[in-house]
Specification:
The protein contains no helices and 12 strands. The chain has strands at residues 2-5, 8-15, 18-25, 33-35, 49-52, 67-70, 76-92, 96-102, 105-109, 122-125, 132-139, 144-153. Strands 1, 2, 3, 7, 8, 9, 10, 11 and 12 form a 9-stranded antiparallel beta sheet that branches. The two termini are 21 Å apart.
Length: 182
């Protein structure tokens, strides 16, 4: 079963009798350039991250035409809840590392990767089911891009918001998803 949610690919995957909502964000449904919309891909706020499908030979996307890059000193992506981080593709003009946090505490730091301007993107993955709530890209410059961000959210319960409304729908209003019963 698949469900498109704000451009994210959500797959129901069995895990010990439960299902996780998995998001693979390739950003290719975003057109042009601008701040990543709040709620995109189930992430409440993207901080200083912006999307772009404009050609850039120094920071090419990994897949499709679009990728995101940090436009300021705040290089964190806060998921707004515990998630299982999977992987990400990174292109950077300076050496970089990925850091994952939970409740403000550092959970994991990747190796320091060499600059890879012009690509190909480095695949950074976290092979532990440890819950995290924040992704950070540590890089000496703001010349870096991220593509194909993969993470999973634990099963949701009735009444919990799991898909943030798309403020750009055709009705001009916000989408609503509701459940009732047992």
């Amino acid at each position: 079963r698949t469900l498109a949610c704000l451009g994210a690919l959500a797959l129901a995957m069995p895990e010990v009798g439960q299902a996780q909502q998995v998001h693979l964000l390739d950003f290719d449904d975003l057109v042009g350039a601008g701040p990543v919309p709040s709620g995109y891909g189930g992430v409440p706020s993207w901080g200083s991250w912006a999307f772009s499908d404009l050609p850039d030979p120094v920071l090419p996307p990994w897949s499709g035409p679009c990728r995101i890059r940090s436009t300021g000193p705040q290089r964190r992506i806060e998921f707004g809840r515990d998630v299982t981080f999977g992987s990400v593709r990174v292109v950077a003009e300076a050496p970089f590392r990925v850091r994952l946090y939970r409740a403000g505490q550092l959970v994991w730091t990747s190796f320091q990767y060499a600059a890879n301007s012009g690509g190909p993107a480095r695949w950074v993955y976290f092979a532990q089911p440890t819950p995290v709530d924040t992704f950070e890209l540590e890089c000496a410059t703001d010349r870096h891009a991220v593509d194909d961000l993969l993470y999973a959210v634990a099963p949701v319960t009735l009444g919990e918001i799991f898909c943030f409304p798309n403020q750009f729908n055709s009705t001009g209003g916000l989408g609503v998803l509701a459940g009732s019963g047992s």
